[in-house]
């Protein structure tokens, strides 16, 4: 479980960072908090000649209000800072709640919002030691050609397990991506591919630099609910983010995001139209839970059964909706 040999690069500017990425494209990986990367390197899942430590780049750890009422968050902002931000708690409480559930306090101090967005997909057949994986003939995500959880599939079904992306999807977040050629801005909803192997649309020479939350979703009330075996540290095995507004007791703009039950974080389709302008009842909350459960496609990628994880998506959705409308 020792780390492989690598050369550590420590740029001080964004221009230097993207220059290094361009120079060593295909043989370099980005490290910020390192809470996911370093364990994967010890398991011999990842191996690059260069690691690009971006922690010292100025201007990427700030939370700044924007003129449209939205907020810009630097990709290197620690999850603890997200959790404790008064500005974010006032405008986007669901994001603070999701950030506060990530792993443990020590890991939240190290982990960054950009790293949580770019988190690798996970599976019982993948996140193991080299000896363990070799004994099983490897898998389609690493060194093999078979998906053990869906043997007839030609794609990888490892689950995306970041906590903050479903909340960010509900808030209609965008991200800025920098490269040697310049910058581009994309909706977070378009960033993920839905394939557990090539799970994000990020080229080897590109770097996520900031997250942009629009003013249009500022002030939405929100909840994040997470299923895990150990409440103090684990990745989600099912996660639900819910945001909404109320006007005179009627629902507006309800959005529900899911994590850990698909190869990408996803929004539940049709729920906004289904609940728009209605006064929430127990029956409506139950029906919204059914929609969320149908969107979830969990497989045997974790220690809990797919059936239980899907059922908890239903339960969490209903509970989150009812809690938001009860006070």
Question: Would you write up a description of this structure?
Answer:
The protein has 327 residues and is α+β, with helices and mostly antiparallel strands. It contains 12 helices and 12 strands. The chain folds into 2 domains: 1-56, Uridine Diphospho-n-acetylenolpyruvylglucosamine Reductase, domain 2, CATH 3.30.43.10; 63-118 and 159-325, Enolase-like, domain 1. 30% of the residues lie in helices and 20% in strands. The chain has a 5-stranded antiparallel sheet with strand order 4-5-8-6-7. It has a 4-stranded antiparallel sheet with strand order 9-10-11-12, sandwiched between helices. The protein has a 3-stranded parallel sheet with strand order 1-3-2, covered by helices on one side. Strand 2, helix 2 (37-42) and strand 3 form a beta-alpha-beta unit. Helix 11 packs antiparallel against helix 12.
Question: What proportion strand?
Answer: 15-25%
Rounded to the nearest angstrom, the distance between the terminal CA atoms is 50 Å
**Order of strands in the sheet with most strands:** 4-5-8-6-7
- Class by alpha and beta content: alpha+beta
CATH topology descriptor of the largest domain: Enolase-like, domain 1
Radius of gyration: 20 Å
Give me the CATH superfamily of the largest domain: CO dehydrogenase flavoprotein, C-terminal domain
User: How many domain units?
Assistant: 2
Q: What sort of overall outline do the alpha carbons produce when their principal axes are compared?
A: globular
Secondary structure: helix percent: 25-40%
Please outline the helices and strands.
Layout: E1 7-9, H1 14-23, E2 28-31, H2 37-42, E3 50-53, E4 63-65, E5 71-74, H3 79-84, H4 86-91, H5 93-99, H6 105-110, H7 113-117, H8 130-135, H9 164-170, E6 174-179, E7 182-187, E8 207-213, E9 221-227, E10 238-247, E11 250-259, E12 266-267, H10 271-275, H11 282-295, H12 306-325
Parallel strand pairs: 1-3, 2-3
Antiparallel strand pairs: 4-5, 5-8, 6-7, 6-8, 9-10, 10-11, 11-12
């Amino acid at each position: 479980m020792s780390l492989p040999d690598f050369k550590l690069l420590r740029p001080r500017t964004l221009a230097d960072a993207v220059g290094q990425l361009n120079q060593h494209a295909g043989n370099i990986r980005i490290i910020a908090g390192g809470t996911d990367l370093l364990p994967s390197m010890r398991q011999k899942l990842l191996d690059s000649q260069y690691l690009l430590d971006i922690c010292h780049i100025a201007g990427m750890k700030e939370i700044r209000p924007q003129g449209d009422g939205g907020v810009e968050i630097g990709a290197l902002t620690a999850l603890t800072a997200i959790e404790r931000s008064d500005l974010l708690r006032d405008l986007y409480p669901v994001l603070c709640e999701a950030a506060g559930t990530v792993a443990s306090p020590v890991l939240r101090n190290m982990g960054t919002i950009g790293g949580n967005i770019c988190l690798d997909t996970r599976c019982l057949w993948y996140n193991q030691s080299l000896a363990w994986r070799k004994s099983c003939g490897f898998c389609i995500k690493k060194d093999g050609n078979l998906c053990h959880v869906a043997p007839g599939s030609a794609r990888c079904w490892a689950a995306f397990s970041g906590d903050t992306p479903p909340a960010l999807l509900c808030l209609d977040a965008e991200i800025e991506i920098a490269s040697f050629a310049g910058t581009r801005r994309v909706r977070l909803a378009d960033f993920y591919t839905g394939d557990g192997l090539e799970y994000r649309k990020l080229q080897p020479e590109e770097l996520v630099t900031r997250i942009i939350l629009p003013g249009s979703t500022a002030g939405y009330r929100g909840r994040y609910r997470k299923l895990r075996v150990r409440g103090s540290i684990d990745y989600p095995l099912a996660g639900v983010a819910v945001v909404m507004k109320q006007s005179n007791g009627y629902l507006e703009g309800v959005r529900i995001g899911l994590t850990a039950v698909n190869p990408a974080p996803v929004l539940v389709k049709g729920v906004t139209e289904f609940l728009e302008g209605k006064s929430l009842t127990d029956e409506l909350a139950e029906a919204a839970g059914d929609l969320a459960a149908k969107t979830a496609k969990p497989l045997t990628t974790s220690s809990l059964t797919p059936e239980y994880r899907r059922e908890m998506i239903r339960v969490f959705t209903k509970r989150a909706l009812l809690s938001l409308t009860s006070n």
